[in-house]
Amino acid sequence: MNDAFKYIAGFITAVIGAWGTVWLQRAKNQGNNESVYAEHTEDLFRRIDKLTTDLEKRTQERDDLKEQVLSLKGQVKNLEIKIDKLSQKFNEKGKDDGDN
Q1: Rounded distance, CA 56 to CA 66, Å?
Q2: Residue 58: CA atoms inside 13 Å, Cβ hemisphere, count?
Q3: DSSP string, 16-35
Q4: Secondary-structure breakdown of the chain: helix, strand, coil percentages, each rounded to the nearest 5
Q5: Does pTM surpass 0.70?
Q6: How far is the C-alpha of 97 from the C-alpha of 35, rounded, in Å?
Q7: Distance between CA atoms of 7 and 86, rounded to whole angstroms?
Q8: Distance (Å, whole) CA 68 – CA 62
Q9: What is the pLDDT of residues 38-81, one digit of tens each?
Q10: DSSP 8-state code for residue 51
Q11: Per-residue pLDDT reduced to its tens digit, 16-27
């Protein structure tokens, strides 16, 4: 019984020691990670600025294309009206010729 207690106590001590080691290593690395992030901050901001600029360009292109689409839709509508009028004239002309 005494030997089992020694093994269990030793195991619990080892687990607590391992946990403490991991915790201390994480605390130590946290400071080191901040310097890594600081080294790349300027590059990250440059990339964000580039992405923002690209997005603004794409948004402007999209808006320009929307305007062109609306203009073309108007032109198509006008052509449809002209076609309808010409078709009516053609049909009326055909009726007039058929009556003679």
Answers
A1: 15
A2: 6
A3: HHHHHHHHHHHHHHHHHHHH
A4: 100, 0, 0
A5: no
A6: 92
A7: 103
A8: 10
A9: 777 888 899 999 999 999 999 999 999 999 999 999 999 999 99
A10: H
A11: 888 888 888 877
